[in-house]
Structure formats: C-alpha cells, structure tokens
Amino acid sequence: MDKPKLIVDGKRMDGRAMDELRPILIKAGVLNKADGSAYIEWGKNKVLAAVYGPRECIPKHDENPYKALVRCTYRMSPFCSLEEHGRRGPSRRGTEISKLISNVFDTVVMAEHFPKTAIDIFVEVLQADGGTRVAGLTAAAVALADAGIPMKDVVCGVAAGKIDGEIAVDFGKYEDNFGESDIPVAVSPRTGELLLLQMDGMLTKDEVMRSVDMAISASMKVHELQVAALKERYAEKEKSGALGGEGDNGGGSLPSDAGGGRQGMALQPVPGDAGESAR
Amino acid sequence: MFGAKRFGKEKFERAGFRGGRRGGQQFAPMPQAPAAGAEQERHGPESHGEPARKSRLVVPGELLGAAGRPIPHTFTEKGSAYSSVVGLFDDASGKLIPLEGVYTPALDDVVVGVVVAVRFAGFTLDLKSPYEGFISGKDTRDVFKLGEVLVSRVKEVDEVRNVDLTEASKLEGGEIIEIPSVKVPRVIGKNSSMIRMLQDATKSEIVVGKNGRIWVKGGNSALAIEAILKIEREAHTQGLTDRISALLGSGGQSRGV
Q1: CATH topology of domain B175-250
Q2: Which pTM does this prediction carry?
Q3: Is the CATH number 2.40.50 carried by domain B53-92?
Q4: Which of B102, B160, B253 faces A254 most closely, judged by CB atoms?
C-alpha cells in the first residue's frame, strides 16, 4: 500500500486535531471468573484485560519471598487485524509488550503486601488499529483496580509522535505505519512519572520533548475515563442494589442472581471529551 | 467474629462440635465468649457497621488528605495520604473500606477451610486465599480426610505468610457459600447484629469465616443463604439492615426452592 496523506487541511485522516484522542470507552468488571477485568474500546481497538490473583505462584522457582510477581501476557488474537498478526501464540512482539506491561505494573502495584504469590494480567487484543499496547495497559490498570490489588496509581498510556512533519498523539494504524516516529508513553497520573517510554523512528530532541509532553497531557484525559469507569461500576451496583431492596416483592433477589452485578451490565460509552471526536 | 459464637456450649454439643470421643473438655473448638469479644475490639465495631452517610468512592492513587496515623489500605507520600484500592472512604472517621480484594490470613481470624492435603505432620487447608493454612497434628486430636470442611482459628502468620491454624473442628453437613472476604464485616454487622438477626429469623446454624466462606446448616437455610447473598450484593449500600430485616420478615422469594 502506498503512503496515504496523513494530514489534510490541518486535520488528520479521521478528522481529528493533532492533540485529540480517538473516542474511548472503558468498562470495568466485564468477566465473571476473573478477579478483576476491564474492556476498552479505543477508536477501533478492542481490548480485554483480565487479572487473576494474587494467587499461588507457579512455577514455584519464580516466587519471591519478599513480594508478589507481576506477570503479564499480551496477546493479539489471530483475527484482530487483516494483516501481520495472522498467527496465534506468542511472538517476538507479544513477548516484548508482555514484558514492558509487567514492568510498568511492577512499579505501581504494592507487591510487597503479597509475598510468594503471583498476579497475572492477561491482555487480549480482539481488534487492533494502532496503539494496542497503551490501550491494553490502560485496560489492565482498570482491571487491577477492579481486582482490589493495592496500587499507588491507576496508570495509563498514550502514544505520541510525528506524522507528516507534525507532532500528534494517539496514532491509528495508518499513522503508525506511515508516520515518521511513534513514542508510546505510560504515566502515573498522580505524580506525572513516566513508566514507559519507547520510540520508533527518528526525532530531534525538541520533537521528543514535545511529543512526550503532549502524550502526558493526553493521558490525563484517559485517566479521567479510567476513574469514571471504576466509579460507574459501583454506582451501577448501588443503584441495582437499592432497587432490589425496595422492591422486595419483585424479582431480582433470587440466589441464582448472585452474580447479577457483573452480568447485568450493558456496554455504554463513557462520557468524556474524547467521545466528541466520533464522526 | 463468627456467628456460631452466640451458641452456648450445649448447642455446640448438639451440633456435634464436641465429639464424645474427645470427652469434650480439653479441646475448645470454638473461641469462647471472651475471645469473641476481643475479636470485635480488634476490628472495631464501626468497620462492621453501615458505611457512614458521607463516605465517598475512591480509586487507587486518589488523595484522601494530609497524612495522619496510618490507615489500612492507604499509603502516604510527601505528607499526603492516598488510597491504594477501590473503596469507600469516610472523611469523618478516616476509615477506608475496600470493595474488592483477596483474603489475607491475620492472627485470630476464624476461617472455614477445606482439607487439600493430609501430611505426616498435619493437614493443609485451602483458605480461599493465596496462602494455605496448616493444622499441626499437635494441635488436633482428630484425623481429617481430604475434602473435609473445617472451621479453625489462625494461630500464627509469619513474615512469608506461612499460616498455622488451631482449634480445628469439622463442619458436618450443611452448605457452604462463598462471598468476597471484604464483605464479611457486613454479614456479621455491628456487634454481630446482622448475623444474630439471620440466626434468629432462620434458626439456622451459621459459621462465618473471615475468609469469605460461610457454612449454613439447618433451619430455613435457603432463606439464610438468600439473605447472605443479598448482603454480599448490597454490601456497599446504606440501610442494608432494614432491607435484610424486611426480607427475613417476608420469608424471602425462594420459598420452596
């Protein structure tokens, strides 16, 4: 495929401004069997994150008597995009991303509370359109919070970089493939610390600084959506709980309904300024 | 700490907690009244009660205020206290009640476990936790079998979370339900009010393990279980006691189930 024009009349291919994110929807607690889970739709990306643990560390020789092991498995499903990811199973790229996501969470999870255990994070990319590592990381942070694992922050990430000579954030597939440079960044919104910084392509020092600054300010918006998703989960539970209580003669309180809090959730877009860029 | 403590000694005997074989005296399977009282002291009655009106939902990393005395489930950094979990924070009392999380064994907790291994020196119990419990053969005269359900008390937890249990006794018959351990305080209620209400209304024997396993036997156990699951679902809401009381009064929806 030939390189498309990435910027037309000052707007990007999908009509976004340079500092504008794609529409993001985050839902916490979507899986019944996982200790914590989250689903994120970030533009055309669709990513599921599940957290299990703290649980017994297997293999035993990996366990640490001082703290929990934070492990991540990032996987792209074989059907997640039209090209490149046609095979399932671990890949060079998947292994790299798994490692960097576990390293990011190793810095924020208070693993010393759970010696000898392992915390497993699974990131499953169901549909990919550029920026899946930061989308997966963002979802995994919500899933960890949903699992009740003590953390110093709900981390999030956004990629930034240069397309057609301009600095922009949150690249889609074509911007990612045909842009000059791409910098995925993960931050701790509470402290502003950088937890992940990678770079593809070439940039001047000044461009790197501008990209990173732009990614950090964009990730603050992502963080607001993460917090909203977590709070929404309990607000919803509270509402359904109160209803079940007042209508004691009605249904909804049968023992078989025990998991209802998790099952009865419909996907709804999380309100936020990023949502306005939907076309 | 757990429901059955209300039962007098004679009820335990009737329920088979004290086997005649043991003679019943030298072995106290359940913490007796003073121990149970101490248990409540330790956890504080307020953490067992309703979340206060003004509590707010916090997420990890959310600022709670200036750092004072250490609060569980928080951390301090540069003089400020932050939440480390999703929970309900009450600004007035300065308490943070987590909404999710696994059970971590703590000293004197009463737990309901399942025997997962029989060893030469004792029995290993699954505690619905990342950490298994161990009952030394020295601490029990009984011989337990794989898969048996026991109620037991945590005798010691060391720095690498090896958990020693004591005062084990078998729970025979009945049903087990599992709820998240963070919701156990609501099932017990302030000064055991909730569990007392459940027992009075259903006439069931109920043993609540701090690890989130609840054993129910006899009486209207279907109603007891329905009520406990309702408490679990609505643990973070207010006015729960009234709703449970109404449910128990109405006899529940699961009559005949």
Answers
A1: Ribosomal Protein S8; Chain: A, domain 1 (3.30.1370)
A2: 0.81
A3: yes
A4: B253
Q: Does A51 touch chain B (CB under 8 A)?
A: no
Whether B82 sits inside 8 A of A152 (CB atoms) is: yes
Nearest Cβ partner for A152 among B61, B102, B236: B61
Record: contact A231-B59, CB cut-off 8 A: yes
Topology (CATH level 3) of domain A23-226: Ribosomal Protein S5; domain 2 (3.30.230)
Is the bond preceding A54 in cis, omega lying within 30 degrees of 0? Answer: yes
CB contacts under 8 A, A 178-217 vs B, are: 188-190
pLDDT in tens, B165-198: 999 999 999 999 999 999 999 999 888 999 999 9
Taking every pair of Cα atoms in chain B, the longest distance, rounded to a whole number of angstroms, is 60
A29 Cβ under 8 Å from any chain B Cβ: no
Cis check for the bond before A59: say yes or no (omega within 30 of 0): yes
Interface subset of A 94-123, CB within 8 angstroms of B: 108, 110, 113-117
Pairing state of beta strands B110-118 and B149-157?
A: antiparallel
Whether the domain at B3-42+104-170 and the domain at B53-92 fall into the same CATH topology? yes
- The three-state secondary structure class of B189 is coil
Per-residue pLDDT at B107 exceeds 80: yes
Which tens digits make up the pLDDT trace of A103-118? Answer: 999 999 999 999 999 9
